[in-house]
Amino acid sequence: MQRQIFTEEHEAFRETVRTFLTKEVLPHYEQWEKDGIVSREAWLAAGRQGLLGLAVPEEYGGGGNTDFRYSAVLAEEFTRAGAPGLALGLHNDIIGPYLTGLATDEQKRRWLPGFCSGETITAIAMTEPGAGSDLQGIRTTAEDKGDHWLLNGSKTFISNGILADLVVVVARTTPEGGAKGLSLIVVERGAEGFERGRNLDKIGQKSQDTAELFFNDVRVPKENLLGERDGAFIHLMTNLAQERMGIAVAGIAAAEHLLEITTKYVKEREAFGRPLSKLQHIRFEIAELATECAVTRTFIDRCIVDHSDGTLDAVHASMAKWWATELQKRAADRCLQLHGGYGYMAEFPVARAFTDGRIQTIYGGTTEIMKEIIGRSLLA
Length: 380
Prior knowledge:
Number of strands: 10
Oligomer: single chain
Shape: globular
Largest sheet: 4 strands, mixed
């Protein structure tokens, strides 16, 4: 089916992204995977190419365009290239809205130019060793000391954790407030008492630096409070739909790409004197996956348009996230199986897609959390 949600401008942007990937990412990606981290030069190159701060106002060096379809193009092309390590989506679509929507004018002048140039890499620190999706379990505290916040606690599984120059930390500012007693405190690189743990050894997305962060009596300036005091819960809920849409977009793009490379493989690979594609079971597998992708693509594209128009709600974003990522997981497993022994070899794209994509049903809210959100909306 012909996709109808993109204009000529979007497709021109797609070509820009592909050129960037070919020139600045893919030649270095194997080395980044070995190093466990991407180079800062890649972030600077993304800034020069205009791929950072797409929705940031032009006065701060951004693109000034809030059309989510550009972010969708970026997610689709990075997914097809098998290059999730350079986490532009995290920077642009997850952290960007907090800075553009909540920051004061002074904070915007201080943080957004570097955000758009690639000089300031960002992260958001919410997950803790004992608290993931349950915000009430967050133990990191920010104590009001009059002229500063005193931050103590630890975070884990933080994407961009090693490279980040600016970390939005979810911390408890009212001890008895539960989920409603949390605030967003911005910690900058070099703050005394702010330490990074090891670069965590994951099964996939090896080049995406994911770290533990520790805050030991970190004195954070009062002016680094982002948004309202004790307002983090509302701030987080407001921006979760976009985070989940970005993950969903990558999910369906990954499933489609897996279908594409597997269809090509079974046409070329022979068994018992004929191509695998001549076997009825193989044809049925491809037919099922193609249908699942087509149906999912229709729903995701509708959600992309609705989100660009500002009408997508949390429930449909949750539907998109859990359905697309579970399809991605099934597709990776089935396509690896169809590749046989070659699918288990790390140099084959299907093998990397299998390990890189496994996190998709977990971060941004697990599949189980997505179902809970949907179920509550229907049965409350």
